[in-house]
Design a protein that fits this description.
The protein has helices at residues 9-15, 24-36, 45-55, 60-68, 78-87, 91-103, 122-139, 160-175, 236-244, 368-371, 396-399; strands at 3-7, 41-43, 70-72, 146-158, 183-188, 191-206, 209-215, 227-230, 248-255, 262-269, 276-280, 286-287, 291-297, 304-311, 319-333, 336-350, 374-386. It has 400 residues and is α+β, with helices and mostly antiparallel strands. It has a domain at 3-24 and 136-386.
């Protein structure tokens, strides 16, 4: 089973289309960027916590621009995000907050978020990893068949040069029946943050695999082209741990958990052992790059509460960046408690293929760094319940 990060076809298709006359929304957007662009502010979690009090007093649009102009240099905790969301009242400001929080997901937490427990012995480290292996091999396959609501909020981070290409993509997808939305949230360091929509799916998990998704709620159309990930709901733990055992795993630190400290291990997977597939949908090709990340493990039971993947992209990779993070927590289903996915983050920047490049050939070029925006997906899993099939048997008596 492979974990797939995919950048869809229409973006690169649009690059080769002739330039069309700019429409009014884009002109208004560029005016808004010049008026509301925020200066970059790189802050710690504690500094951002203090700033947010003043941001919350502003209008929704101004607050969003201020939040988007803040770059966290540390990973915040879910409890921080919940507290910050409660302070902000507007939808745009909260959307900007989600994006800022997510982009820091792959950084180290503040020193105050670590636990000063003694370094475990080599034997103790091996025991923790062994418990994690047993957990993945024995507990995960025994999870019940279930349904969950998967809510994905999508963002794009683009430079001014990429806005022209975004316009072409927008025109192209509208002709194909899509109506993509780009809501300006703020600007920072020459880049612009857009909210592009939110979609809900009902996910069916059965016999150890994610087998289907269907749109739910107010969704009437699938999301427009952008970043799509597959495999994180079901096989990610088995795949990553299996790959990591062929690479290297080493203890990093202790971090606070819901029931006590969790052991955080760094791992590295060489290219020959990788099952992390980055697919370029322009030509259907994909590569399996080396990758690395973290595993946060319950030292007593082996349950995995957090996992990250960061692809080590090279000049021949299908993407310039491709990272995935998943957080797990206790969920009660049918009177039993299970450790299940709660929140996920995916960040990817596809490597665009230049007009002079042959199909399927990636040509490293400084311009390609500016060809494609960064895509950011924030995903939550909620409304878990057990999947059951009901059969009603009709007897002769009931048919009369």
């Amino acid at each position: 089973m492979q974990i797939v990060s995919q950048a869809w076809r229409s973006y690169n298709d649009a690059l080769d289309k002739p330039m069309q006359i700019r429409n009014v929304p884009l002109v208004l957007l560029l005016v808004a960027l010049a008026f509301d662009a925020a200066a970059q502010s790189t802050v710690t979690v504690a500094e951002f916590d203090q700033q947010l009090t003043s941001f919350a007093q502003l209008s929704d649009g101004r607050a969003a621009a201020k939040v988007a102009g803040s770059v966290l240099k540390e990973r915040a905790a879910p409890s921080d995000l919940a507290r910050w969301h409660a302070q902000l009242k507007g939808d745009k400001a909260r959307e900007a907050l989600t994006a800022v929080y997510d982009t820091a997901e792959f950084l180290v937490p503040p020193l105050t978020a670590t636990v000063a427990d003694p370094l475990p012995t080599i034997a103790a480290q091996r025991e923790i990893v062994t418990r994690a292996i047993d957990y993945v091999r024995q507990t995960v396959p025994r999870l019940p068949n279930l349904l969950a609501v998967r809510t994905t909020t999508r963002f794009e981070i683009a430079t001014p040069e990429q806005l022209d290409r975004q316009e072409r993509m927008s025109m192209l997808t509208q002709l194909r029946g899509w109506k993509p939305t780009h809501v300006y949230l703020g600007a920072v360091d020459g880049e612009t943050l857009f909210f592009t929509g939110q979609w809900q799916f009902v996910v069916t998990y059965r016999d150890g695999s994610e087998i289907s998704q269907s749109l739910t709620g107010a969704n009437r159309h699938p999301p427009p082209p952008g970043l799509e990930t597959r495999g994180e709901f079901g096989p990610i733990l088995t795949t990553v741990l299996g790959d990591a055992l062929k690479g290297s795993i080493r203890f990093s630190k202790w971090e606070p958990g819901a029931k006590g400290p969790v052991a955080v291990f760094n791992y590295e997977v060489p290219k020959g052992a990788s099952h992390y597939a980055i697919q370029n949908a322009v030509n259907g090709s994909f590569d399996l790059p080396p990758y690395r990340g973290e595993l946060a493990i319950d030292p007593e039971y082996g349950a995995i509460y957090r996992i990250t993947l960061k692809a080590d992209c090279s000049e021949s990779s299908a993407a310039l960046q491709s990272n995935i993070s998943l957080e797990y927590g206790p969920v009660e289903i049918g009177g039993m408690t299970y450790i299940l996915p709660l929140h996920g983050v995916a960040i990817s920047q596809p490597r665009a293929i230049g007009a002079t490049g042959a199909a399927g050939k990636v040509e490293p070029d400084e311009q390609q760094m500016r060809d494609a925006p960064r895509f950011l997906n924030d995903t939550t899993f909620t409304d878990y319940h057990q999947f059951r099939s009901e059969v009603k048997i009709l007897t002769d008596d009931t048919q009369k």
